[in-house]
C-alpha cells in the first residue's frame, strides 16, 4: 500500500512553516500520507547549530524511517538537481512543496533575487524536467490590499516592500516555466504542474515567525505588567486576515492532490489567474544582476488560491483576542503618537522607544519563569519595522472551498486557539511560566 503513496519533497521553510507541513505528511499518530518525505533547507538540524529551534513535534518526527532531512545550498544548480534524486530503492518524487525564499524585510534586492527568485527558478525548472505531478508554491502574504471589502484571486493587489516585489516576481518566473520549457534542452518538454497557495497572516503551534507570535509575546508582557496593550495606528478597518498553520499545511496537501489529478492545462482553465507584472522600476535592478525576467507584456497564468479563516480578522480583533488570552485590555495610542509615527515613517529611534518597555518586560518574564528560561527562546517581543507598519490584508478564499472542496480545520482566530499555542510552548520550555507582576 505504501508504494502507491506519493513521495514528497519540502524545499525551504524550516524557519517558517515546513515543520508543520512535515508533521501533516507524516503524522505522529495516524497513517502517513507519503511513502517517503525529504526535507531540504540550508539550516542544520543535527546538531541544530545554524537554526536552533525546531519545535517538539518536528524533533520527534525526524527519526522516522520515512523522513530524511538534507542540508543543502539551493542556490547551486547541481545541488538542486541532486536533491531531486531519490535514495536507492525509493520512488521518484512526485509532490514538491516549495516554501523557499528570504522572508526578512531588511534584505536587499540582490539578496532577494538570489535567495528567493533564483532558488524558486532552479526548483521549478528541475521539477519540470523531472515531470513531477504536483508543484505547490506557498507564497508569503507580502501584499497590500484595499481596506474595503475582501479581495479574490482575480484582483491585482500591490506587493508590499522589496520582499513583496520579489516574492511576487517569483510567481511570474514559475508561471513562465511552462511557456519556455520546450525550448530549453535542460528542461523537459512538458509543463510544470504548478499551483500557488497564498495564505493570510499565519499563526499556530511552534510558528514563531510573523506578526502574530511577536504580538502574542508583547501582549503577555502587558498582561504580566497589568497594563493595557496599545496599537500604534489609530482605529480603522485595518484588515489583517489570519489563517492557522495547520490549515496552510492541509490546504497545500489538498492542492497537491488536486493539481496531480487535473494537470496544469485543465487547472489553468478551472482556476488560472493572470499574474500581473511588477512596476518595471521595481525590478530594474535584475538587469544589473544579469537576471532574465519574464517580459512584462507577457500574460502569465497559473492556478492561484487564497487561504484565510472565517474570522475577518482586523488589527482591533487580533489585539482584543491576544489581550484576552493574557487578561489585559487592548486599545490605541493617542492621535499625537500615531501622527508622529506616520511622519517619521518609523525611524530607528521611534522603533527603539516603542520596544523599550515590552522587550525589557519579556526578558524579566523569562528570568522570573518557574523554572527560569536561561537559554534561547524562539519567541521575541521585539517589534521591528515590518511588524509595526500598518498592514491591510483582506483576502477572499471562497475559491479553494468551491473548486478544491477544502474545509477549514480552524475557522476562527480566538483566545482558545492562542492559549493552546502558548500551552505547547510552555510544555517545551519556550514560554515563561509566570504570574502577573505584583502591584507596587
From TrEMBL:
<protein>
    <recommendedName>
        <fullName>NAD-dependent epimerase/dehydratase domain-containing protein</fullName>
    </recommendedName>
</protein>
<dbReference type="InterPro" id="IPR050177">
    <property type="entry name" value="Lipid_A_modif_metabolic_enz"/>
</dbReference>
<dbReference type="Pfam" id="PF01370">
    <property type="entry name" value="Epimerase"/>
</dbReference>
<feature type="domain" description="NAD-dependent epimerase/dehydratase">
    <location>
        <begin position="117"/>
        <end position="262"/>
    </location>
</feature>
<dbReference type="InterPro" id="IPR001509">
    <property type="entry name" value="Epimerase_deHydtase"/>
</dbReference>
<dbReference type="InterPro" id="IPR036291">
    <property type="entry name" value="NAD(P)-bd_dom_sf"/>
</dbReference>
Amino acid at each position: 500500500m505504501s508504494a502507491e503513496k506519493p513521495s514528497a519533497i519540502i524545499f525551504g521553510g524550516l524557519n517558517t512553516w515546513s515543520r508543520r507541513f512535515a508533521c501533516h505528511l507524516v503524522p505522529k499518530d495516524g497513517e502517513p500520507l507519503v511513502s517517503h518525505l525529504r526535507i531540504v533547507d540550508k539550516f542544520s538540524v543535527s546538531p541544530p547549530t545554524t537554526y536552533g529551534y525546531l519545535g517538539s513535534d518536528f524533533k520527534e518526527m525526524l527519526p522516522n524511517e520515512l523522513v530524511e532531512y538534507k542540508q543543502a545550498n539551493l542556490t547551486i544548480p547541481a545541488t538542486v538537481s541532486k536533491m531531486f534524486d531519490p535514495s536507492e530503492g525509493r520512488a521518484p518524487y512526485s509532490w514538491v512543496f516549495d516554501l523557499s525564499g528570504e522572508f526578512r524585510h531588511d534584505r536587499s534586492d540582490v539578496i532577494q533575487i538570489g535567495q528567493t527568485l533564483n532558488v524558486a527558478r532552479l526548483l521549478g525548472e528541475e521539477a519540470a524536467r523531472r515531470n513531477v505531478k504536483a508543484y505547490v508554491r506557498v507564497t508569503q502574504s507580502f501584499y497590500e490590499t484595499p481596506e474595503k471589502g475582501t479581495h479574490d484571486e482575480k484582483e491585482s493587489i500591490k506587493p508590499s516592500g522589496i520582499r513583496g516585489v520579489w516574492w511576487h516576481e517569483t510567481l511570474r518566473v514559475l508561471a513562465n516555466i511552462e511557456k519556455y520549457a520546450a525550448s530549453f534542452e535542460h528542461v523537459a518538454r512538458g509543463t510544470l504542474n504548478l499551483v500557488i497557495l497564498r495564505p493570510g497572516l499565519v499563526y499556530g503551534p511552534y510558528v514563531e515567525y510573523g506578526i502574530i507570535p511577536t504580538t502574542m509575546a508583547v501582549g503577555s508582557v502587558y498582561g504580566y505588567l497589568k497594563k493595557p496593550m496599545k496599537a500604534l495606528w489609530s482605529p480603522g478597518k485595518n484588515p489583517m486576515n489570519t489563517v492557522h498553520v495547520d490549515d496552510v499545511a492541509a490546504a497545500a496537501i489538498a492542492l497537491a492532490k488536486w493539481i496531480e489529478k487535473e494537470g496544469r492545462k485543465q487547472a489553468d482553465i478551472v482556476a488560472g489567474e493572470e499574474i500581473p507584472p511588477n512596476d518595471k522600476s521595481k525590478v530594474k535592478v535584475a538587469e544589473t544582476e544579469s537576471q532574465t525576467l519574464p517580459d512584462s507584456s507577457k500574460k502569465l497564468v497559473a492556478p492561484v488560491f487564497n487561504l484565510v479563516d472565517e474570522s475577518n480578522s482586523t488589527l482591533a480583533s487580533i489585539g482584543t483576542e491576544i489581550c484576552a488570552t493574557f487578561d489585559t485590555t487592548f486599545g490605541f495610542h493617542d492621535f499625537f503618537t500615531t501622527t508622529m509615527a506616520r511622519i517619521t515613517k518609523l525611524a530607528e529611534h521611534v522603533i527603539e522607544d516603542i520596544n523599550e518597555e515590552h522587550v525589557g518586560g519579556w526578558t524579566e518574564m523569562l528570568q522570573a519563569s518557574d523554572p527560569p528560561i536561561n537559554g534561547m527562546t524562539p519567541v521575541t517581543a521585539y517589534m521591528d519595522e515590518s511588524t509595526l507598519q500598518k498592514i491591510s490584508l483582506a483576502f477572499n478564499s471562497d475559491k479553494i472551498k468551491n473548486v478544491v472542496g477544502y474545509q477549514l480545520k480552524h475557522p476562527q482566530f480566538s483566545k482558545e486557539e492562542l492559549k493552546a499555542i502558548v500551552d505547547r510552548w510552555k510544555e517545551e520550555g519556550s514560554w515563561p511560566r509566570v504570574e502577573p507582576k505584583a502591584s507596587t
